[in-house]
Amino acid sequence: GQDASDVFVTPANNRLYLITTNNTAGEELYIFDIANSTTPLELSSLNIGSGGHSVVVKDNYAYLATSDNSSELMIIDIQDPTSLAVNAIYNAPSSSDAYDVVVAGNYAYLATSNNPGGTPEIYILDVSDPLVPSLVGSYNVGADVYGLFYRDDLLYLATSENNAELQILDVSNKAVPSSLGGYNTPGGEEGREIVIDENEVAYLLTDNDPGSDAEFFVLDVTNPASISVLSSTDIGKGGRALFVIDEYAFVGTEAAGNQVQIFDVSDPADPQEVNSWDISALVNGIFVQEDTLYMATSDNTEELQIWSQVAGGTVGYQVQGSYESSVFGPVSNFNLIKWSEAVPSGTDLRVQIKTAPDASGSPGAWSETWCGPEGEDADETDYFTDASGGIIHPDHVGDNWIKYKLTLTSDGTITPSLEDITVNYKP
After folding, report:
1. In what order do the strands lie in the sheet with 228-233?
2. What is the DSSP letter of 410?
3. What is the distance between the alpha carbons of residues 181 and 157, in angstroms, rounded to a whole number?
């Protein structure tokens, strides 16, 4: 039931990392294989014991900004995604939450909520050995820092400071960061996300401006001491997520009916909205790779959403995809499978299973094919289709482990979803 907070993709090995708010009943970090983005395969998950706000991956480690007051930064060795643990932490000298983290070279930059009393909100850590992070420097902002972006020894901050929603730090001397300048938006909003492109153009996203002014700013930051506005756009509500790639900005907002907005920013002085759509949920994190959009959302049945064909601003659901579950067991005598689903007109959801006997506490040989109600009949053409319940074939009697596969289809404009699934068995 928790919300997804952020998403990160490593294209080189087709991995996706999803972080969520605190899950009192389970995990907050999930790793997927997305070699085929229409069929994301969950590889593993990890209970970190608190909510996560941001995830970034560099080399063989995932860095998490969390709400754990004794482990604001968590570092996880992901070389073997099936065997995860929190391998190292950094405990910031405060009781604040960490909101964002970026890693560049041998350094991690951690941003936290406001720390009254002069305690810093920016921490610079040496992670040349990720298992032994060490503090190198810090900086007192005096406000919440929600978003970070690093480029060429400059650290860009999206903050809650009403007189400097964008702040720029020189971090060439890691031990003593210094302020170079900032930008004060004309309203009373807070800075939420910041992205800098290779032309030193900044894209600043803020929360809702109560005066109906802009929340999406494009700025020339060539001279940090004298930042100029190239354009500003009213997106209707507060911004929550931002990703800029090539000539497009992908914006997650709080605007009902327009939670995702895509802008052509080829002319930074005149951004043009080319598409928007309603997902009936908040978009808290965005990652775009080639023509695929990955979103971390507040939808409790679709925390991760993957949309295709986003090049040029077009977007839609995949028309077909599948999902393979984790393994469940050991139990015995599977007899019925049922589920709750939302299947709008023009969509379909079907289920198949594989089972395996127990082999010293682990699954033995799995069924040769994915099976429906006809059992192990050497083909994969039959499916469970009745959500109210389907009898599991006697072929699976005697097996102790089970996993399921979903096959989902849509017309590209709407998607089916699985809300829960139950397998009955007799002890």
Report:
1. 191-196, 201-206, 216-220, 228-233
2. -
3. 11
Greatest C-alpha distance within the chain: 74
- Output the average pLDDT for the chain: 92
How far are the Cα atoms of 68, 162, 300, 374 from residue 388, in angstroms, in the given order? 41, 54, 21, 17
Which candidate, 238, 283, 237, places its Cα nearest to that of 260? 283
Parallel/antiparallel/unpaired status of strands 122-126 and 134-139: antiparallel
Is 80 exceeded by the pLDDT of residue 320? no
Which parts of 221-318 are beta strand (E)? 228-233, 239-245, 248-253, 260-264, 272-277, 283-289, 292-297, 304-308, 316-317
CA distance 333 to 388: 19
pLDDT digit string (tens) for 111-125? 999 987 889 999 999
pTM of the complete model? 0.76
Report the C-alpha gap between 214 and 233 in whole angstroms: 5
pLDDT digits (tens, 9 = 90+) for 399-421: 999 999 999 988 777 788 898 99
Contact predicate 57/39, CB 8 Å: no
Within a 10 A sphere around the Cβ of 126, how many other Cβ atoms? Answer: 17
Closest CA to 311 of 253, 246, 267: 246
- The 3-state DSSP class for residue 13 equals helix
Sequence-distant contacts of 179-185: CB under 8 A, at least 24 apart: 180/154, 180/224, 180/225, 181/223, 181/224, 181/225, 181/226, 181/227, 182/224, 182/227, 183/217, 183/219, 183/227, 183/229, 185/209, 185/213, 185/214, 185/217
Q: What is the pLDDT of residue 82?
A: 85
pLDDT band at 169 (very low <50, low <70, confident <90, very high): very high
Distance CA 205, CA 217 (A): 6
> HEC profile for 161-214?
CCCCCEEEEECCCCCCCEEEEEECCCCCCCEEEEEECCCCEEEEEECCCCCCCC
Q: Enumerate residues 6+ apart whose C-beta is below 8 A from 356.
A: 329, 363, 364, 365, 366, 367, 399, 400, 401, 402
Read off the tokens for 250: 């992908």
Question: In this prediction, what percent of the chain has a pLDDT beyond 70?
Answer: 96
**Coil vs helix vs strand at 242:** strand
Rg (CA), the chain: 23
